[in-house]
Design a protein that fits this description.
Blueprint (H helix, E strand, L loop, with lengths): L10 E7 L3 H9 L7 E7 L6 E5 L2 E5 L1 H4 L2 E5 L3
Antiparallel strand pairs: 1-2, 1-5, 2-3, 3-4
């Protein structure tokens, strides 16, 4: 499952970052790293971007970038 597949209200944990070079580096610079817990806050009206909470701050991530982030759902 990727972050793109997560629904609003889901809490997920990052399993793997796909992608290479500057794209992967940009995702990591935003604070999304392996093992990090992400809460999906909301999705924009047209579906892009997705707003998430990671490391206690809100972040908007494009769906194209969300496809590169493999996650697993965390049960509350």
């Amino acid at each position: 499952m990727t972050l793109k597949d997560a629904r609003v209200g889901d809490t997920v944990k990052v399993v793997k970052l796909n992608g290479t070079g500057p794209v992967k580096r940009r995702i990591m610079d935003m604070g999304i790293t392996k093992g990090q817990v992400i809460y999906v806050r909301k999705v924009a009206p047209l579906g892009d971007p997705i707003e998430v909470t990671v490391r206690n701050y809100e972040l908007s991530v494009r769906k194209a970038d969300c496809q590169m982030i493999d996650v697993q759902k965390v049960e509350a």
